[in-house]
Each structure stands twice: as C-alpha cells, then as structure tokens.
Amino acid sequence: SPMRRHRPRCAAMASLSLDYLQHIxxxxxxVVSSSAPLPVPLSQSRAVATSARxxxxxxxxxxxxxxxxxxxxxxxxxxxxxxxxxxxxxxxxYPLPQGDDSGESELGRAFTWVDxxxxxxxxxxxxxxxxxxxxxxxxxxxxxxxxxxxxLGAAVLATAL
Length: 161
Fold this sequence. Notes:
Elements: H1 9-13, H2 18-24, H3 46-50, E1 55-60, H4 67-73, H5 75-80, E2 85-90, E3 94-95, E4 111-112, E5 120-122, E6 125-128, H6 132-140, E7 146-149, H7 152-160
C-alpha cells in the first residue's frame, strides 16, 4: 500500500529499544517502535541522559478515549521520566457521537483514529477501516522523537510504519 512506504518523521528519528522501555517503566503498555535497532540501547546512551532537551514523545490513545484520559492512565510513567521525555498527548481526529459505546461521560468527549461512520462491519466486527489517511497524516506531520500508542492508537501507528 502507498501509505506504508512513508514512515513518520518522528518514528524515523528514534527507535525505542526494549532495554530503554524497561528502564523507564513502560513495560505493560502497547508500544510500537521503528524496526531499525539503535546501535546502543538508549538506556546506555549518554546522549539521552545528557541531552539538552528531553525527547519529544507523541502519545496516541485507544479507541473511545481521549488525550486527557490516556495522560491520566500513564501519569506515573510520565512523572518518572519527566527529565528524559516530554509527552504530547493528542486526541484522535474523529470525535465519537454521544452514545452507549462512545465512552463519553463525565470524563469528557471520546475520540478515535478511524471514521466509525464509514467502517465496514461484518456481524458487528470492523472488517475494513475508513479514514485512516487523516490519522496517518496527523502523525506524519507531528515533530517528535518517538511515539507510543495504546490499543487502536498502537495499531494505527503500526500502519504508519
């Protein structure tokens, strides 16, 4: 597919190694990284520890969530690595209509990464996604060093790579 040939700028800039993810405590979250390994694990890299600026990390929430909810879920991690990484939590480009499965409640609006009004379904299961191009473009246009994604956010990120 033509969309898979172009890697996001930020994913091409840095690759999160398993050592680094263990070091900063991201094990257990769905993390998608560039396929190109780093020559030295980031946990051993002096450049990360002594960098003039923290890594800029784009954070993609799951389906029927929001940037603010995802930020709350990983607050302990972001607090632990605040000297190493600055997280940019963004909402998916498609707000979900208010309803039973929208996830909208006292927690605020809910968003997703695909156009749920246009997805193809078979027995209630999504079989063909729609509107991914808008999400992929949003990711590609973001200036960052790394990306993490949860659930559908991770799946969309994998598509972008």
